[in-house]
Write a structure and sequence with these properties.
Helices cover 39% and strands 18% of the residues. By secondary structure, the protein is an alpha+beta fold.
């Protein structure tokens, strides 16, 4: 695209923000960066899994342009009377460690990224539920492997694994070996168990025919499963 025909950054930010707000009644800096094409969703997943030190490392532009986009976004949100709602961001590991956005760890930058801007049309109760859901972080995911594998921590193996930056890890080493497998198929039971299980993980398996990971069920606390049944 020529410089003459390039869409101004303010317009790109506004379009991305409007789409996110219409979709889920809230919008964040991450939504903007993905919407304008500076942040790949796959890179976000690696960051959530703890494989990237901070989000800034995978944003495909320089810090000054990121700052400009953030300022434009905050002005857009203020003009529309959106409500600032701070969120917690934790990684997709059993330890649920805090995620970082900037190399500098500047508290002001971190706070800007953690703030979601919520539609004032939502009731206070709905805003609280939205904040609670966002702060829980991404679901833990474990894999049913297709091939033999070895745990990078203990040298063991098993029917399920979780990928970590150094390699696959067994459930015992990551602290999920106390959970019980609930196969997919009964949506009502799954919802009840998931709501009552303080710790759970989604089980997936790669389909060679569809070339994608498909959900097989959940790992849940035995207590929650027994109560739901």
């Amino acid at each position: 695209m020529s410089r003459k025909n390039r869409v101004p950054l303010g317009d790109r930010v506004a379009i991305a923000a409007e789409r996110a707000l219409a979709s889920r009644h809230a919008v964040s800096v991450n939504d903007i960066l993905i919407g304008i094409g500076w942040l790949d969703p796959g890179a976000v997943e690696r960051w959530q899994r703890g494989q990237v030190d901070c989000l800034e490392e995978v944003v495909q532009t320089n810090p000054l342009r990121i700052l400009e986009a953030m300022q434009l976004f905050q002005s857009w949100a203020a003009e529309r009377g959106l409500i600032a709602s701070p969120m917690d961001y934790v990684d997709r590991t059993p330890q649920r460690r805090a995620l970082h956005f900037s190399r500098s760890r500047d508290p002001r930058i971190e706070a800007s990224f953690r703030t979601h801007w919520v539609s004032p049309e939502l009731s206070e109760a709905k805003r609280e539920r939205l904040a609670e859901k966002a702060s829980r972080g991404a679901e833990l995911v474990v894999v049913q492997p297709l091939n033999e594998w070895t745990c990078h921590r203990c040298g063991g193996t098993g029917d399920l694994l979780m990928m970590e930056p150094p390699g696959p890890a067994c459930l015992r080493c990551i602290g999920l070996d106390d959970l019980e497998f609930l196969p997919a198929g009964d949506a009502r039971l799954t919802r009840r168990v998931k709501a009552n299980s303080a710790k759970y993980a989604v089980v997936v398996r790669f389909s060679r025919t569809r070339r994608r990971y498909e959900r097989q069920g959940l790992l849940v606390e035995p207590r929650a499963l027994a109560e739901a049944r």
